[in-house]
Write a structure and sequence with these properties.
The chain is an alpha/beta fold and 229 residues long. The protein has 9 helices and 6 strands. The termini are close together. The relative contact order is 0.17.
Length: 229
Amino acid sequence: MIKCIVFDMDDTLYDEIDYYRSGFTAVSRVVKSDFGLAGEAVFKTLWEIFNSGNHKTTFDAAAEKLGIVFDAAYIEKLVNVFRAHEPDISLPSESRMVLENLKSHYKLGLITDGYLPAQELKVKALGLEKYFDYILYTEKLGREHWKPSPKAFEKLLAQFTVSADQCVCVGDNLEKDFLSPNQMGFKTIRVVRKRRIHFGKAPSQQAQPHYEIDSIAKLPDLLGKINAV
């Protein structure tokens, strides 16, 4: 019998692309002010480069296209602006309804990778605190314990005093979300959002989720089927 459900946040409970749009908006305001630029050229350039698939050197590529120079110190400044901005994001109605439904029946945990304070600001903007019994930021455990490390999942099991076979892990990223929970004995479910950012492949068969759904709204029914097995 399932007693606990642990969720990933980014691209599982909301579209992470909306966070990037918000972050690039904040960054573009700073660049416009620092370089005396006008209009929407900075944001449009950042957005086009990111959506073309360049997620690693977006700022460098944007500077080159805009005809300006970002040295290493300035890139660091923009990264900090991005991570520290208050995100303009909201929890989709289907995620809100699912969490409200599940909270009455299960213990709910959230395990999220990423830099602080960015992840904390996302949780606050999405209003997630009221839904979860336990929120764990893997950054607080040390970067070596970001997923796919099992450390956060072990802490969650101890917090809830449940066994892995009583838990379900819901995530999106094939590269890191499912390997450890699969090895530990969780049931795993991948939410495949239409506007997702991550399209990588699972590094091994052990990293493949047990189930996939194309909408988080389908999660309660799937949990019922898993419980019935």
